[in-house]
Amino acid sequence: MKVTPLHDRVLVKRLEETTKTAGGIIIPDTAKEKPSEGIVEAIGNGFRAEDGKIVPMSVKVGDKVLFGKWSGTEIKINGEERLIIKEADILAIVEN
Predict the structure, then answer these.
(1) 20 to 30 A from 69, CA-CA: which of 6, 14, 17, 83?
(2) pLDDT for 72
């Protein structure tokens, strides 16, 4: 199934959270927090400004991004969890 977000929304695949601390302690699934970091898989066209023009998105497919902990809506695509969030909920683009 292919999903294309509308307007200023972004489809993000969350990055896996580490399961071990720096000291070697393994974190159980019940104690893990959902990561607030992911990879952009698809983007919408952008949002419509008050003058009617479409403002293009600042992020692009493949960008590694940080987003708010409670941002977006979780969906399942082909059995895998994804997140649809508004571009405004993206806090930063992470560059290596």
Answers:
(1) 6
(2) 87
Name the band, by pLDDT with cuts 50, 70 and 90, for residue 22.
low
Q: What is the 3-state secondary structure (H, E, C) of 46-76?
A: CEECCCCCEECCCCCCCCEEEECCCCCEEEE
Other beta carbons less than 10 A from residue 31's beta carbon: 7
Report the 10 Å Cβ neighbour count for 26: 8
Q: Which fold has domain 9-16+29-94?
A: 10 Kd Chaperonin, Protein Cpn10; Chain O (2.30.33)
CA dist 39 and 96 (Å) reads 13
